[in-house]
Batch of 3 targets.
Target 1
Amino acid sequence: VSVADVLPSEKRCWDSNANQDPDVMATQPHAALMCAMLLFPGVLRSLLEVAGAKFDGPPPAGSPCSDTWNKLFSRRPFSACTEFRHCKHYLLHANLGDAYCRHAVHFWRPVAMQHWLHACAGRLVKMSESSLFDGELSEARCIWSKASLGLADTLASDYSTFNTSEVGPDWKPPSIVLDMTLVDVQEDFGLRQQQDFHVEDEESQLLRALRLSAATEGARQRRTLVEQQDADYQESLLHDQARVAG
């Protein structure tokens, strides 16, 4: 992978003739990953932290670079990462990067992917050891940091209030969706309350009817019992009077 392959450029991504070259196609994934590292080095660190990588431990097995992650991050182009963040959308880029790390960490956690990350990061550091190449990389990042992005309007309007909790364990809905549906939710809640109120009235009426029916049946049973007791009493009284008279 050459410096020209890594530099952010639409031509690098959309040159149809180059895409037909097997050698170019073989290097494109590595170049794209290194370009992403060059523009968003903070995302690389966050991704490694979420993945549980050991920054001061030995490099991933099989990586052609023997430096630890800490050593790589202490060298250019990673050591100057804050100098070239986008002047307008840097905070949103950080939030989106953090969200990506949380959501895609399972893809980057395997040893093979850690090996790929480390090898590409090591290659970038090797490029920056040359003052000429480092100058080209720095100039490209500086131009990008001040450029108008293709998704600038979308970033400014739809993602201006983006929060990483939208991809967290609770999957909180985006604030723009909450704002759009707040009135509907309130109206639905009021309607549910009215419906529940009517249901409760019907249930109350049914309970009252049941209580009334039970009370009526209880009263009937008590009257029957009293009448039976009165009859038994009268019969016993007549029996006693006959025995005394006889």
Target 2
Amino acid sequence: MAVSSPLQLSVVIHPVVIFTICDSYERRNEDIDKIHGTLLGKVEKERIEIRNCFIDDNPTASGKKKFNLEEFQRLFDLHQRVYPSEVIVGRFSTGHQIDEIALAMQAFFSRVIESSYVTFPIHLLVDTNLTNSHMGIQTSVYHKYGVPGNDNGSIFTPIQYRMSYYPEEISATQLFQRNLAVGGIAPVHNDMQQVIATSTKIDELLDEVIKYVEDVMADNIPFDSKLGRSLSDAIIAVPQIDQSVFKDMMNNSTQ
């Protein structure tokens, strides 16, 4: 990965990473204030995609625990059996700021990560304490600074990130959004309810498309060639199926 500056990096995070961290934080022992762990994912040139993570046995603020390198290696080996293409891309910790433990562990891992997987290891900070009633998410890169060949120290440089969703993750996040909308717990839809909800959404989107086409034809709004090509591609992609055949397909698939 030939990246000369951390500002060139593009970081993508999957929701399952945030969910795993929050779940592990809720399941922590009472004497542990924060949790730390390892980020895993894929690296493609300037793009780092964080897909998974696991908790490792880091020391607590009181120093009751020590990091177990053998246990960490066992967890990483098990993960690679399932996801052989995913490598270590950085570390994560909880809280509203990076603490001394996270800094020490990031420095330790960077000596291994930089030479094996990524030039600038990522640090993901998740504010599970909900400071100001908000769960902040921050990404930064850990790198050395100073005169080449005689580094004077290390620094965390904040960088931007964006969320990326698999189809299954989209369904889960939409359910969480419904929970927020009703101010409580929204029921999980069964298959038929999901079909109805999706069909209703598609119907609403089609109404928007039809209105856009009618406005363009009536010269109410300017024509967008890029949007026009996208609509044309979408129409061509729709399979030509007889109405009765489609009805039978739907009935057979929902029994």
Target 3
Amino acid sequence: MLWLLLLCLLQASASGPTLGEIETEARSGNVRAMVDLGTAHLNGLLGVERNVSAGAEWYRAAAEKGSVAALGQVGIMVAQGIGFPQNVQQGVALMRQAAEQGSEEAMLNLGIAIKLGVAPDEPPSEANKWLAQAAAKGVAAAQGFLGICYRDDSDTSCPTNLTKAVELFEQAANAGHADSMHNLGVCFQKGTGVASDKRRAALWLARGASAGRCLLYTSDAADEEDSVDLGGGRSIKKERKGSSGKRVEAR
């Protein structure tokens, strides 16, 4: 499923502990080290050969010790069938459990999972609720995704509110969210939800490109797509296909 790329994975810091130190701490019961080691195995970081099963086991161990973040990650993996037998219903339930316990990442991932139809039994309003909660906690990816929902008039689960969309894009952009910088630039370029301002449009489009956007889009390309950067080189791209519908693509 495309939303596998929604994993909010920890990134190893060059100045952080060594692999040996993390392993020692993890085996002694340090929950944060367990999560870090699970991430290293899952993504092949810190010189560790990628081992999904080992990563899943470390996340499971951390969740059993009370890590809400790990619980949310286990939920994603269970629903996707990565490292665990696939069970979408159970995976969504675990994500919800983590979100209800305050995990911002789980709020984001649960909201997007519902929005993308991974949890068909959940009403669309639930997606908006969880995305809004994550956005209120300052999660830039949630702000960016919710901004697209408010801006995209083909998304019937989210009432069109262009002013709110711009507000959310601006919050995320000011927090350093590359794709929201781009999308804010598009709003200024086209006068969507805000007065048209070519200078500010060029500024935000350039900032988005320098902060991690793959391309500095032309005005025509900007008409056709919005995207949400999820961190770690992952993003969701929503391509408009006229009034007949939309396509959601993860990359």
